[in-house]
């Protein structure tokens, strides 16, 4: 087994990107924002979106190289934490150009045999880890669930207990993704 963390192992220039986010975007905090909340993914300015698009393409190309290398290794399976879908959920796909870009990245990215989204209610996730404003977490959840338009093989595991989520994942792994996806539509 191999475990790959997308941000640490795949993202292009991750440390530089994180440093810039902390240095620049945290300063753009509004006076009413709670100081503990992050201010990076939720910033959507005209100049950041094209810059992010370049990085997402570089991330996708690097992902291809890493998956190719992992396929030649002696792994029964590889678990990706986040994969490319975390990046895709940040792209507002209301405009035709954004949708075309998402389709390009999905087409370039290696197709995982199993792709799960572990869903959570935003208010419960916020209570557990208050990292981003609640309204952003709600829109981010909708964006993740909306990825099924671009990635139909995504299996959404609804909010549940850790044990139930584990059982559903094992069921999907034993029955195969096609059977599970057809039996459990994205909601």
Structure description:
There is one protein chain. The protein has 187 residues and is mainly α. The chain has two domains: 1-112, no CATH class; 114-187, no CATH class. It contains nine helices and four strands. The protein has helices at 6-10, 14-25, 48-71, 85-88, 96-108, 122-128, 134-146, 162-175, 177-183, and strands at 2-5, 78-81, 115-118, 154-157. The chain has a two-stranded parallel ribbon. Strands 3-4 form a two-stranded parallel sheet. Helix 8 (162-175) crosses helix 9. The chain is globular. The two termini are 31 Å apart.
Q: Please provide the ordered H/E string of secondary-structure elements.
A: EHHHEHHEHHEHH
Separation, N- and C-terminal Cα atoms: 31 Å
Please tell me what the overall shape is.
globular
Structural class: mainly alpha
* CA-based gyration radius: 17 Å
Mean pLDDT score, rounded? 83
Number of domains as seen in the coordinates: 2
Low-confidence stretches: 181-187
What portion of the residues fall into strands of 2 or more residues?
Answer: 5-15%
